[in-house]
Amino acid sequence: MDQYEHIRTAHRVYEQSISEISRITGHSRNTIRKALSEPYSGYSLRHYQPFPVLGPFQKIIDTWLADDRDRPRKQRHTARRIYDRLVFEHNFSGSESNVRKYVREAKERLGISTIKAFLPLEPDLGQEAEVDWGTAVVVIQGQTLKVKIFCMRSKGSGKPFLRLYPCERQQAFFDALMRGFFFYGGVFPRLIFDNLTTAVRKVLQGKARLEQESFTHFRAYHNFEARFCNPGAGHEKGGVEGLVGFARRNFLVPIPEAQSLEEINERLLQQCVAYGRHTISGRDKSVEVLFAEERSCLLKLPDVPFTNIQILSAKADKYATVIVDKNRYSVPTRFAGRALRVICHVDQVEIFSQGQRVANHCRLFANNQWQLDPDHYLEILLQRPLAFHSARPIRDWKKCWPLTMHQLLERFCRTYGENRGIKEFIKVLLLFRNHPTEDVHQAIATAVEAGISASGGIQHLLHRNQPVPQIFPLEHYARLPKADISIYACLGGGL
Protein backbone atom coordinates (compact mmCIF):
# COMPACT_ATOMS: atom_id res chain seq x y z
CA MET A 1 0.00 0.00 0.00
CA ASP A 2 2.97 2.33 0.71
CA GLN A 3 4.38 1.64 -2.76
CA TYR A 4 0.98 2.30 -4.35
CA GLU A 5 0.75 5.65 -2.57
CA HIS A 6 4.36 6.56 -3.46
CA ILE A 7 3.81 5.84 -7.20
CA ARG A 8 0.60 7.86 -7.42
CA THR A 9 2.04 10.77 -5.40
CA ALA A 10 5.22 10.91 -7.49
CA HIS A 11 3.26 10.99 -10.73
CA ARG A 12 0.27 13.14 -9.75
CA VAL A 13 1.92 15.60 -7.35
CA TYR A 14 5.56 15.76 -8.49
CA GLU A 15 4.78 14.99 -12.16
CA GLN A 16 7.48 12.34 -12.51
CA SER A 17 7.37 10.18 -15.61
CA ILE A 18 6.61 6.47 -15.63
CA SER A 19 10.19 5.66 -16.69
CA GLU A 20 11.63 7.74 -13.86
CA ILE A 21 9.31 6.15 -11.26
CA SER A 22 10.23 2.69 -12.62
CA ARG A 23 13.94 3.46 -12.22
CA ILE A 24 13.50 4.73 -8.65
CA THR A 25 11.12 2.01 -7.35
CA GLY A 26 12.32 -0.96 -9.40
CA HIS A 27 8.77 -1.84 -10.52
CA SER A 28 8.01 -2.52 -14.15
CA ARG A 29 6.35 0.17 -16.21
CA ASN A 30 3.27 -2.04 -16.68
CA THR A 31 2.91 -2.27 -12.89
CA ILE A 32 3.23 1.49 -12.56
CA ARG A 33 0.65 2.08 -15.30
CA LYS A 34 -1.74 -0.31 -13.51
CA ALA A 35 -1.29 1.53 -10.19
CA LEU A 36 -1.99 4.85 -11.88
CA SER A 37 -5.09 3.67 -13.73
CA GLU A 38 -6.86 1.40 -11.19
CA PRO A 39 -7.80 1.53 -7.49
CA TYR A 40 -5.71 -0.63 -5.19
CA SER A 41 -7.23 -4.10 -4.84
CA GLY A 42 -4.47 -6.01 -3.10
CA TYR A 43 -3.37 -9.50 -4.06
CA SER A 44 -5.77 -11.75 -5.96
CA LEU A 45 -6.65 -15.12 -4.46
CA ARG A 46 -5.44 -18.27 -6.13
CA HIS A 47 -8.00 -20.41 -7.87
CA TYR A 48 -6.02 -23.52 -6.96
CA GLN A 49 -3.90 -24.03 -3.85
CA PRO A 50 -1.02 -26.43 -4.42
CA PHE A 51 0.21 -28.66 -1.60
CA PRO A 52 3.71 -29.67 -2.66
CA VAL A 53 4.61 -31.38 0.64
CA LEU A 54 1.13 -32.64 1.55
CA GLY A 55 0.29 -33.90 -1.95
CA PRO A 56 1.41 -37.55 -1.47
CA PHE A 57 -0.70 -37.80 1.69
CA GLN A 58 -4.00 -36.43 0.36
CA LYS A 59 -5.49 -39.83 -0.49
CA ILE A 60 -4.66 -41.09 3.01
CA ILE A 61 -6.49 -38.13 4.57
CA ASP A 62 -9.48 -38.60 2.25
CA THR A 63 -9.69 -42.28 3.27
CA TRP A 64 -9.65 -41.45 6.98
CA LEU A 65 -12.36 -38.82 6.57
CA ALA A 66 -14.55 -41.10 4.46
CA ASP A 67 -14.30 -43.87 7.07
CA ASP A 68 -15.44 -41.43 9.76
CA ARG A 69 -18.93 -41.39 8.27
CA ASP A 70 -19.62 -44.75 9.96
CA ARG A 71 -17.95 -43.80 13.24
CA PRO A 72 -19.56 -42.28 16.36
CA ARG A 73 -19.77 -38.52 16.06
CA LYS A 74 -17.57 -37.93 19.10
CA GLN A 75 -14.88 -40.35 17.94
CA ARG A 76 -14.00 -38.95 14.54
CA HIS A 77 -10.74 -37.48 13.26
CA THR A 78 -9.98 -33.88 14.02
CA ALA A 79 -7.44 -31.93 11.95
CA ARG A 80 -4.99 -32.14 14.84
CA ARG A 81 -5.39 -35.90 15.12
CA ILE A 82 -4.83 -36.29 11.36
CA TYR A 83 -1.65 -34.22 11.60
CA ASP A 84 -0.36 -36.32 14.52
CA ARG A 85 -1.03 -39.58 12.66
CA LEU A 86 0.73 -38.31 9.55
CA VAL A 87 3.78 -37.36 11.60
CA PHE A 88 4.02 -40.59 13.64
CA GLU A 89 2.78 -43.12 11.06
CA HIS A 90 3.96 -41.61 7.75
CA ASN A 91 6.89 -39.31 8.70
CA PHE A 92 5.12 -36.21 7.43
CA SER A 93 7.37 -33.12 7.56
CA GLY A 94 4.91 -30.39 6.60
CA SER A 95 3.15 -27.84 8.80
CA GLU A 96 -0.02 -28.35 10.80
CA SER A 97 -1.63 -25.23 9.28
CA ASN A 98 -1.51 -26.75 5.78
CA VAL A 99 -3.06 -29.96 7.10
CA ARG A 100 -5.88 -27.97 8.73
CA LYS A 101 -6.50 -26.04 5.51
CA TYR A 102 -6.67 -29.22 3.44
CA VAL A 103 -8.91 -31.05 5.95
CA ARG A 104 -11.40 -28.16 5.88
CA GLU A 105 -11.52 -28.25 2.08
CA ALA A 106 -11.71 -32.06 1.98
CA LYS A 107 -14.68 -32.20 4.40
CA GLU A 108 -16.60 -29.74 2.21
CA ARG A 109 -15.71 -31.70 -0.93
CA LEU A 110 -16.72 -35.05 0.63
CA GLY A 111 -19.93 -33.62 2.09
CA ILE A 112 -19.06 -34.36 5.71
CA SER A 113 -18.75 -30.83 7.02
CA THR A 114 -19.67 -30.55 10.70
CA ILE A 115 -21.17 -27.07 10.27
CA LYS A 116 -24.90 -27.03 9.46
CA ALA A 117 -27.07 -24.11 8.53
CA PHE A 118 -30.25 -23.31 10.43
CA LEU A 119 -33.24 -21.13 9.64
CA PRO A 120 -34.17 -18.20 11.89
CA LEU A 121 -37.72 -18.90 13.07
CA GLU A 122 -40.49 -16.72 14.46
CA PRO A 123 -43.27 -19.06 15.65
CA ASP A 124 -46.84 -17.94 16.16
CA LEU A 125 -47.92 -17.18 19.71
CA GLY A 126 -49.97 -19.79 21.56
CA GLN A 127 -49.65 -22.58 19.00
CA GLU A 128 -46.81 -24.86 20.12
CA ALA A 129 -44.94 -25.92 23.23
CA GLU A 130 -41.85 -28.12 23.53
CA VAL A 131 -41.40 -30.88 26.14
CA ASP A 132 -38.26 -32.65 27.32
CA TRP A 133 -36.69 -34.44 30.31
CA GLY A 134 -33.30 -33.79 31.91
CA THR A 135 -31.37 -34.99 34.97
CA ALA A 136 -30.08 -33.16 38.03
CA VAL A 137 -28.81 -33.77 41.56
CA VAL A 138 -30.51 -32.50 44.73
CA VAL A 139 -30.10 -33.10 48.47
CA ILE A 140 -33.21 -34.34 50.31
CA GLN A 141 -32.94 -34.70 54.10
CA GLY A 142 -29.15 -34.75 53.83
CA GLN A 143 -29.10 -37.48 51.18
CA THR A 144 -27.91 -36.81 47.62
CA LEU A 145 -30.45 -37.97 45.04
CA LYS A 146 -30.46 -38.03 41.25
CA VAL A 147 -33.80 -36.72 39.97
CA LYS A 148 -35.49 -36.00 36.65
CA ILE A 149 -36.33 -32.48 35.45
CA PHE A 150 -39.52 -32.08 33.45
CA CYS A 151 -39.20 -29.06 31.16
CA MET A 152 -42.00 -27.47 29.16
CA ARG A 153 -41.51 -24.28 27.13
CA SER A 154 -43.86 -22.14 25.08
CA LYS A 155 -42.33 -21.85 21.63
CA GLY A 156 -43.99 -18.48 21.03
CA SER A 157 -43.36 -16.55 24.26
CA GLY A 158 -40.55 -18.67 25.72
CA LYS A 159 -42.32 -19.02 29.10
CA PRO A 160 -40.89 -22.08 30.95
CA PHE A 161 -42.36 -24.62 33.37
CA LEU A 162 -40.09 -26.90 35.43
CA ARG A 163 -40.79 -29.67 37.93
CA LEU A 164 -38.66 -32.39 39.54
CA TYR A 165 -39.68 -36.07 39.79
CA PRO A 166 -37.93 -39.16 41.14
CA CYS A 167 -38.47 -40.88 37.76
CA GLU A 168 -39.89 -40.25 34.31
CA ARG A 169 -42.51 -42.99 34.24
CA GLN A 170 -45.76 -42.47 32.42
CA GLN A 171 -47.73 -41.38 35.49
CA ALA A 172 -45.08 -38.77 36.30
CA PHE A 173 -45.14 -37.70 32.64
CA PHE A 174 -48.92 -37.22 32.66
CA ASP A 175 -48.84 -35.47 36.04
CA ALA A 176 -46.16 -33.06 34.80
CA LEU A 177 -48.13 -32.25 31.64
CA MET A 178 -51.32 -31.57 33.62
CA ARG A 179 -49.45 -29.33 36.08
CA GLY A 180 -47.90 -27.54 33.11
CA PHE A 181 -51.32 -26.95 31.54
CA PHE A 182 -52.57 -25.56 34.86
CA PHE A 183 -49.49 -23.30 35.11
CA TYR A 184 -50.10 -21.86 31.63
CA GLY A 185 -53.85 -21.63 32.17
CA GLY A 186 -54.69 -23.72 29.11
CA VAL A 187 -53.56 -26.42 26.67
CA PHE A 188 -51.29 -25.70 23.72
CA PRO A 189 -52.83 -26.93 20.46
CA ARG A 190 -49.58 -28.70 19.54
CA LEU A 191 -46.87 -30.29 21.73
CA ILE A 192 -43.44 -31.35 20.43
CA PHE A 193 -41.78 -34.41 22.02
CA ASP A 194 -38.83 -36.75 21.65
CA ASN A 195 -39.68 -40.36 20.83
CA LEU A 196 -39.97 -41.18 24.53
CA THR A 197 -41.26 -44.65 25.36
CA THR A 198 -43.99 -43.29 27.66
CA ALA A 199 -45.68 -41.84 24.55
CA VAL A 200 -44.36 -43.80 21.54
CA ARG A 201 -44.64 -47.57 21.19
CA LYS A 202 -42.90 -47.80 17.82
CA VAL A 203 -41.20 -45.35 15.44
CA LEU A 204 -42.37 -45.89 11.87
CA GLN A 205 -41.12 -44.44 8.61
CA GLY A 206 -41.05 -40.66 8.36
CA LYS A 207 -43.20 -38.89 10.93
CA ALA A 208 -45.54 -41.84 11.55
CA ARG A 209 -45.60 -43.21 15.10
CA LEU A 210 -47.47 -45.92 16.98
CA GLU A 211 -48.49 -44.25 20.24
CA GLN A 212 -48.95 -45.88 23.60
CA GLU A 213 -52.66 -46.51 24.14
CA SER A 214 -52.73 -44.62 27.46
CA PHE A 215 -50.95 -41.63 25.87
CA THR A 216 -53.53 -41.60 23.08
CA HIS A 217 -56.28 -41.45 25.73
CA PHE A 218 -54.49 -38.60 27.50
CA ARG A 219 -53.96 -36.67 24.25
CA ALA A 220 -57.56 -37.15 23.15
CA TYR A 221 -58.85 -36.01 26.55
CA HIS A 222 -56.92 -32.72 26.32
CA ASN A 223 -57.36 -32.33 22.53
CA PHE A 224 -53.78 -31.42 21.63
CA GLU A 225 -51.78 -32.63 18.65
CA ALA A 226 -48.54 -34.51 19.36
CA ARG A 227 -45.57 -34.03 17.05
CA PHE A 228 -42.47 -36.18 17.50
CA CYS A 229 -38.94 -35.24 16.44
CA ASN A 230 -36.86 -37.35 14.09
CA PRO A 231 -34.58 -39.79 15.94
CA GLY A 232 -31.36 -38.08 16.99
CA ALA A 233 -32.64 -34.65 15.94
CA GLY A 234 -32.99 -32.83 19.25
CA HIS A 235 -32.41 -29.50 17.48
CA GLU A 236 -35.99 -29.75 16.20
CA LYS A 237 -37.03 -28.64 19.69
CA GLY A 238 -33.93 -26.62 20.46
CA GLY A 239 -35.73 -24.17 22.74
CA VAL A 240 -36.53 -26.73 25.44
CA GLU A 241 -33.18 -28.51 24.89
CA GLY A 242 -31.50 -25.26 25.85
CA LEU A 243 -33.92 -24.80 28.77
CA VAL A 244 -32.72 -28.06 30.37
CA GLY A 245 -29.14 -26.79 30.56
CA PHE A 246 -30.24 -23.25 31.49
CA ALA A 247 -32.31 -24.57 34.40
CA ARG A 248 -29.45 -26.68 35.72
CA ARG A 249 -26.97 -23.78 35.56
CA ASN A 250 -29.27 -21.05 36.88
CA PHE A 251 -32.04 -22.62 38.97
CA LEU A 252 -30.18 -25.62 40.48
CA VAL A 253 -26.81 -24.06 41.32
CA PRO A 254 -25.80 -24.37 44.10
CA ILE A 255 -27.29 -27.83 44.54
CA PRO A 256 -30.66 -27.26 46.28
CA GLU A 257 -31.20 -28.78 49.72
CA ALA A 258 -34.61 -29.34 51.32
CA GLN A 259 -36.66 -31.71 53.44
CA SER A 260 -38.78 -32.83 50.49
CA LEU A 261 -38.85 -32.68 46.71
CA GLU A 262 -42.06 -30.66 46.86
CA GLU A 263 -40.22 -27.86 48.66
CA ILE A 264 -37.70 -27.58 45.81
CA ASN A 265 -40.54 -27.67 43.26
CA GLU A 266 -42.13 -24.66 44.96
CA ARG A 267 -38.88 -22.73 44.55
CA LEU A 268 -38.66 -23.74 40.89
CA LEU A 269 -42.21 -22.52 40.32
CA GLN A 270 -41.32 -19.11 41.75
CA GLN A 271 -38.25 -18.93 39.50
CA CYS A 272 -40.36 -19.79 36.45
CA VAL A 273 -42.69 -16.91 37.31
CA ALA A 274 -39.75 -14.55 37.87
CA TYR A 275 -38.31 -15.51 34.45
CA GLY A 276 -41.29 -13.71 32.93
CA ARG A 277 -39.44 -10.40 33.41
CA HIS A 278 -36.66 -11.60 31.11
CA THR A 279 -36.49 -10.40 27.49
CA ILE A 280 -35.14 -13.01 25.08
CA SER A 281 -32.40 -11.87 22.73
CA GLY A 282 -33.81 -10.61 19.44
CA ARG A 283 -37.25 -9.74 20.84
CA ASP A 284 -38.58 -6.39 21.93
CA LYS A 285 -41.05 -7.63 24.57
CA SER A 286 -40.57 -9.55 27.80
CA VAL A 287 -41.61 -13.18 28.20
CA GLU A 288 -44.57 -12.26 30.42
CA VAL A 289 -45.89 -9.66 27.98
CA LEU A 290 -45.69 -12.11 25.08
CA PHE A 291 -47.39 -14.82 27.12
CA ALA A 292 -50.24 -12.46 28.02
CA GLU A 293 -50.85 -12.08 24.29
CA GLU A 294 -50.80 -15.81 23.57
CA ARG A 295 -52.91 -16.93 26.55
CA SER A 296 -56.13 -16.38 24.62
CA CYS A 297 -54.94 -18.82 21.92
CA LEU A 298 -54.68 -21.77 24.34
CA LEU A 299 -57.33 -24.47 24.54
CA LYS A 300 -59.55 -24.47 27.61
CA LEU A 301 -58.64 -26.81 30.46
CA PRO A 302 -61.02 -29.78 30.93
CA ASP A 303 -63.71 -29.24 33.57
CA VAL A 304 -62.79 -32.56 35.22
CA PRO A 305 -59.05 -33.39 35.57
CA PHE A 306 -57.72 -36.50 33.85
CA THR A 307 -57.72 -39.55 36.15
CA ASN A 308 -54.03 -40.27 36.45
CA ILE A 309 -54.09 -43.46 38.51
CA GLN A 310 -53.14 -47.08 38.00
CA ILE A 311 -55.40 -49.76 39.50
CA LEU A 312 -53.90 -53.17 40.28
CA SER A 313 -55.04 -56.40 41.92
CA ALA A 314 -52.66 -57.93 44.44
CA LYS A 315 -52.48 -60.47 47.23
CA ALA A 316 -50.84 -59.86 50.57
CA ASP A 317 -48.08 -62.39 51.24
CA LYS A 318 -47.07 -64.05 54.52
CA TYR A 319 -45.13 -60.92 55.53
CA ALA A 320 -48.33 -58.84 55.19
CA THR A 321 -46.88 -56.96 52.24
CA VAL A 322 -48.10 -56.23 48.72
CA ILE A 323 -45.63 -56.12 45.82
CA VAL A 324 -46.02 -53.15 43.43
CA ASP A 325 -43.36 -52.40 40.79
CA LYS A 326 -40.85 -54.72 42.51
CA ASN A 327 -41.28 -52.95 45.87
CA ARG A 328 -43.12 -54.11 48.99
CA TYR A 329 -45.76 -52.15 50.91
CA SER A 330 -47.16 -53.34 54.24
CA VAL A 331 -50.77 -53.86 55.29
CA PRO A 332 -52.15 -54.82 58.73
CA THR A 333 -51.25 -58.42 59.51
CA ARG A 334 -54.92 -59.51 59.61
CA PHE A 335 -55.00 -59.06 55.81
CA ALA A 336 -52.16 -61.52 55.15
CA GLY A 337 -53.17 -63.89 52.35
CA ARG A 338 -56.15 -61.79 51.23
CA ALA A 339 -56.82 -60.39 47.76
CA LEU A 340 -56.55 -56.61 47.80
CA ARG A 341 -56.99 -53.69 45.41
CA VAL A 342 -54.11 -51.24 44.89
CA ILE A 343 -54.45 -47.70 43.53
CA CYS A 344 -51.13 -46.20 42.44
CA HIS A 345 -50.86 -42.41 42.30
CA VAL A 346 -47.79 -40.49 41.18
CA ASP A 347 -46.41 -40.24 44.72
CA GLN A 348 -48.67 -42.51 46.78
CA VAL A 349 -49.85 -46.11 46.97
CA GLU A 350 -53.28 -46.79 48.48
CA ILE A 351 -54.36 -50.35 49.38
CA PHE A 352 -58.06 -51.28 49.77
CA SER A 353 -59.95 -54.30 51.03
CA GLN A 354 -63.63 -54.52 50.07
CA GLY A 355 -63.80 -50.78 49.43
CA GLN A 356 -62.11 -49.81 52.72
CA ARG A 357 -58.64 -48.29 52.69
CA VAL A 358 -56.34 -50.34 54.90
CA ALA A 359 -52.93 -48.78 54.08
CA ASN A 360 -51.45 -45.66 52.52
CA HIS A 361 -47.74 -45.32 51.66
CA CYS A 362 -45.39 -42.92 49.91
CA ARG A 363 -44.46 -44.49 46.59
CA LEU A 364 -41.02 -46.03 46.11
CA PHE A 365 -39.22 -45.71 42.77
CA ALA A 366 -36.18 -47.97 43.13
CA ASN A 367 -36.29 -51.79 43.16
CA ASN A 368 -36.48 -54.34 45.99
CA GLN A 369 -37.31 -51.79 48.69
CA TRP A 370 -39.63 -52.25 51.66
CA GLN A 371 -42.12 -49.63 52.89
CA LEU A 372 -43.25 -51.00 56.25
CA ASP A 373 -45.59 -49.24 58.67
CA PRO A 374 -44.68 -50.52 62.16
CA ASP A 375 -48.26 -49.95 63.33
CA HIS A 376 -49.35 -52.80 61.05
CA TYR A 377 -47.31 -55.34 63.05
CA LEU A 378 -48.02 -54.35 66.66
CA GLU A 379 -50.79 -56.93 67.27
CA ILE A 380 -48.63 -59.83 66.12
CA LEU A 381 -45.72 -58.51 68.19
CA LEU A 382 -47.95 -58.62 71.27
CA GLN A 383 -48.21 -62.37 70.63
CA ARG A 384 -44.50 -62.75 69.82
CA PRO A 385 -42.69 -60.18 71.98
CA LEU A 386 -39.27 -61.88 71.73
CA ALA A 387 -39.21 -60.99 68.00
CA PHE A 388 -39.56 -57.29 68.83
CA HIS A 389 -35.89 -56.29 68.62
CA SER A 390 -35.24 -58.14 65.34
CA ALA A 391 -38.48 -57.11 63.59
CA ARG A 392 -37.60 -55.10 60.50
CA PRO A 393 -40.34 -52.43 60.85
CA ILE A 394 -39.38 -51.83 64.49
CA ARG A 395 -35.65 -51.61 63.67
CA ASP A 396 -36.42 -48.96 61.04
CA TRP A 397 -38.72 -47.10 63.43
CA LYS A 398 -36.11 -47.07 66.20
CA LYS A 399 -33.84 -44.88 64.08
CA CYS A 400 -36.17 -41.90 64.58
CA TRP A 401 -37.17 -42.52 68.22
CA PRO A 402 -36.34 -39.84 70.78
CA LEU A 403 -34.10 -40.86 73.67
CA THR A 404 -37.05 -41.00 76.09
CA MET A 405 -38.64 -43.92 74.19
CA HIS A 406 -35.44 -45.98 74.50
CA GLN A 407 -35.31 -45.13 78.19
CA LEU A 408 -38.95 -46.15 78.70
CA LEU A 409 -38.39 -49.51 76.95
CA GLU A 410 -35.36 -50.21 79.11
CA ARG A 411 -37.29 -49.33 82.30
CA PHE A 412 -40.22 -51.60 81.36
CA CYS A 413 -37.88 -54.54 80.67
CA ARG A 414 -36.02 -53.96 83.93
CA THR A 415 -39.28 -53.76 85.92
CA TYR A 416 -41.28 -56.59 84.35
CA GLY A 417 -38.69 -58.69 82.64
CA GLU A 418 -37.93 -58.92 78.91
CA ASN A 419 -41.17 -60.60 77.81
CA ARG A 420 -43.78 -58.66 79.77
CA GLY A 421 -41.79 -55.41 79.55
CA ILE A 422 -41.93 -55.49 75.73
CA LYS A 423 -45.67 -56.17 75.87
CA GLU A 424 -46.19 -53.14 78.11
CA PHE A 425 -44.11 -51.03 75.72
CA ILE A 426 -46.12 -52.21 72.70
CA LYS A 427 -49.28 -51.02 74.50
CA VAL A 428 -47.63 -47.59 74.60
CA LEU A 429 -46.86 -47.78 70.87
CA LEU A 430 -50.54 -48.54 70.21
CA LEU A 431 -51.37 -45.11 71.67
CA PHE A 432 -49.93 -43.48 68.50
CA ARG A 433 -53.02 -44.72 66.61
CA ASN A 434 -55.51 -42.52 68.45
CA HIS A 435 -53.39 -39.64 69.74
CA PRO A 436 -51.17 -37.06 68.05
CA THR A 437 -47.52 -38.07 67.86
CA GLU A 438 -46.33 -34.96 69.71
CA ASP A 439 -48.74 -35.60 72.60
CA VAL A 440 -47.58 -39.21 72.99
CA HIS A 441 -43.91 -38.14 72.96
CA GLN A 442 -44.68 -35.51 75.61
CA ALA A 443 -46.49 -38.06 77.80
CA ILE A 444 -43.57 -40.50 77.48
CA ALA A 445 -41.10 -37.78 78.45
CA THR A 446 -43.23 -36.91 81.51
CA ALA A 447 -43.49 -40.58 82.47
CA VAL A 448 -39.72 -41.10 82.24
CA GLU A 449 -39.10 -38.04 84.38
CA ALA A 450 -41.73 -39.07 86.96
CA GLY A 451 -40.54 -42.69 87.13
CA ILE A 452 -43.80 -44.20 85.80
CA SER A 453 -43.36 -47.88 84.88
CA ALA A 454 -46.75 -48.86 83.42
CA SER A 455 -48.47 -48.25 80.10
CA GLY A 456 -51.65 -47.33 81.96
CA GLY A 457 -49.85 -44.39 83.57
CA ILE A 458 -48.92 -42.97 80.18
CA GLN A 459 -52.47 -43.45 78.96
CA HIS A 460 -53.70 -41.56 82.05
CA LEU A 461 -51.28 -38.71 81.26
CA LEU A 462 -52.68 -38.47 77.73
CA HIS A 463 -56.27 -38.29 78.96
CA ARG A 464 -55.35 -35.81 81.68
CA ASN A 465 -53.75 -33.49 79.14
CA GLN A 466 -56.83 -33.48 76.93
CA PRO A 467 -58.89 -30.26 77.28
CA VAL A 468 -61.94 -30.55 79.51
CA PRO A 469 -65.12 -29.74 77.56
CA GLN A 470 -66.78 -26.53 78.72
CA ILE A 471 -70.38 -26.72 79.94
CA PHE A 472 -72.51 -23.65 79.31
CA PRO A 473 -75.85 -23.02 81.15
CA LEU A 474 -78.97 -23.12 79.02
CA GLU A 475 -80.43 -19.72 79.76
CA HIS A 476 -83.45 -19.96 77.49
CA TYR A 477 -84.33 -23.63 78.02
CA ALA A 478 -88.09 -24.20 78.51
CA ARG A 479 -88.80 -25.31 82.10
CA LEU A 480 -91.82 -26.92 83.75
CA PRO A 481 -93.72 -24.92 86.39
CA LYS A 482 -92.56 -25.36 89.95
CA ALA A 483 -94.35 -28.30 91.65
CA ASP A 484 -96.92 -27.67 94.41
CA ILE A 485 -95.96 -30.19 97.07
CA SER A 486 -98.69 -29.13 99.52
CA ILE A 487 -101.22 -31.51 97.92
CA TYR A 488 -99.15 -34.50 98.98
CA ALA A 489 -100.62 -34.13 102.51
CA CYS A 490 -104.09 -35.08 101.19
CA LEU A 491 -102.94 -38.39 99.78
CA GLY A 492 -104.25 -41.47 101.55
CA GLY A 493 -107.22 -39.57 102.99
CA GLY A 494 -105.15 -37.48 105.30
CA LEU A 495 -105.89 -33.82 105.92
A few lines on this structure:
The protein is of the alpha/beta class and 495 residues long.
Report on the structure:
With 495 residues, the protein is of the alpha/beta class. The protein contains 17 helices and 15 strands. The protein has helices spanning 2-12, 18-25, 29-37, 58-67, 79-90, 96-110, 170-184, 213-222, 238-250, 261-274, 287-294, 378-383, 392-398, 403-416, 418-429, 437-450, 455-465; strands spanning 128-140, 143-154, 160-165, 190-193, 200-203, 209-211, 225-228, 257-258, 310-315, 321-324, 327-330, 339-344, 348-353, 356-362, 370-371. The strands form four sheets. Strands 1, 2, 3, 4, 7 and 8 form a six-stranded mixed β-sheet that branches. A hairpin with a 5-residue loop joins strand 5 (200-203) and strand 6. Helix 4 crosses helix 6 and helix 16 (437-450) packs across helix 17 (455-465).
